[in-house]
Design goal:
This protein is an alpha+beta fold. The protein folds into two domains: 30 residues, no CATH class; 156 residues, Glucose Permease (Domain IIA), CATH 2.70.70. Helices cover 16% and strands 38% of the residues. The strands form three sheets. It has an eight-stranded antiparallel sheet. The chain has a three-stranded antiparallel sheet with strand order 1-14-12, with no helix packed on it. A three-stranded antiparallel sheet has the order 4-10-8, with no helix packed on it. Helix 1 packs across helix 2. The protein starts with a helix and ends in an 8-residue tail after the last strand.
Length: 202
């Protein structure tokens, strides 16, 4: 059919092809955009590591790095979101592991344990946080440019996930969540939660 269109309407067909490739180029440029962000400062603040929509808030036991009860906030990143990931807290990278896996839709809660992903743990000067970069149905490339022992600074870039994905943030139970389900968050700027120091922390 495309060949027949070229024979019957060559100019129109060429314009159509050019428009298609312009759309593809525009999508790629939009996906790889990396705007500057202004990160809030303050003790115990957990800043969003990703742009997207809060798709899950729940309590669970986290035994891999925290070794304690935790609260999880999950962020779904659509292909239209900025996909550069940023550190949620300042501290030292204390844990880093890549897991091969499946490519379930990223908003499915099972993707947190079954999809390809990286787990990153930060020792934030006396308390710990774990966050996961999770591949989705379309996303097939996770980038995390870091290593255990490296210094992390809240709001600084460390990697990205290409073409739709999810980030889970797991914090000690007792951390006060400052976002709600369905809320749009911005990497490096939105305050996800506030860790309660001392007797208020779990």
């Amino acid at each position: 059919m495309a060949g027949a269109l070229f024979l019957l309407e060559p100019a129109a067909a060429r314009y159509g092809v050019a428009f298609f490739f312009a759309l593809v180029l525009g999508f790629v440029l939009n996906f790889f955009r990396d705007p500057e962000r202004v990160t809030p400062s303050g003790d115990g603040l957990v800043i969003s590591p990703a742009d997207g929509r809060v798709c899950l808030i729940k309590e669970l036991f986290e035994g891999e790095f925290l070794g304690a009860d935790a609260v999880q906030v999950s962020i779904f990143m659509s292909p239209l979101n900025v996909h550069v990931n940023r550190y949620p807290v300042s501290g030292t990278v204390g844990f880093f592991k890549h897991y091969p896996g499946e490519y379930l839709v990223a908003f499915d809660d099972k993707s947190s344990e079954r999809n390809e992903r990286t787990h990153i743990g930060i020792d934030a000067d006396g308390w710990k946080i774990l966050f996961k970069q999770i591949a989705g149905t379309v996303a097939r490339r996770i980038i995390a440019d870091l290593a255990v022992g490296q210094r992390a600074v809240a709001g600084e870039r460390f990697g990205m996930i290409r073409f739709g994905s999810r980030v889970d943030v797991l914090m000690p139970k007792g951390t006060a969540v400052r976002v709600s389900l369905g809320e749009h968050v911005v990497a490096g700027e939105t305050i996800l939660a506030e860790y309660r120091q001392g007797k208020d922390a779990a």
